[in-house]
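User: What would this chain look like folded?
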Amino acid sequence: MKKLLWVLFMAAPFMAFAQKQTNFEIRGKLDSIDVPMVYIVHGQGYTRIIDSARVNNHAYNLKGYVQVGQQTMLMTYNMSTSKEFHADGLALIFLSPGKSIVRHGKEFRNVTVTGSAGYSDYKALITIAKPYEQKNEALKTRTYQLLKQNDTLEANNTSAEQIVFEQRFMDNVYGSFIKQHPQSPAAFFALQKLAGTGHNVDGPKLKPYFDLLPESVKEAKMESCLKRS
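Assistant: Here's the prediction, encoded as structure tokens.
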């Protein structure tokens, strides 16, 4: 069980450049955007990988290695050196082994992706989850506002409502996805979302979902974890 928790939740402690080993390629097209560089940030075990590509004729090419499908950031600024966050220069995609074509619209963050294994599953999953995520965040915000107003009773009631809502929607959206699509490259992403980012991790609850994943995914994540233990 400890290994499972390490696999899911340990934060990346340092940055690294992408290794020479490659199993993915991104061919990007910037139709109406002028930027000199595009950066990619994704995880490899405990390491956060940052790589970059020069933009030539509104096109760029990125190659690297990814162990399993994961949500990935494409950016027009270097997060290692930039002191400012530029939301308009950030796009989220689903990265998996193989070749992907990424086309940016009038804004860098507006992308269409083709050729990526599991991308359609990922896109469908985040589309389904979006209204639930928004309501969950609204309840959290409401709780915070009530606490600022010293309305402790109503804040506690809203917090309790939020916790129950979050547990139900996580099970119904992310848990159901894993059960229905355990072989999908997006299944491990769903498991990470189901686990959340807090410290109160319910290992026994998560293990049955983890056990549904392909052996190749479980072995890759366990191997990465053990190398850093």
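The chain has a mean pLDDT of 82. If you want, I can go into more detail on any region.
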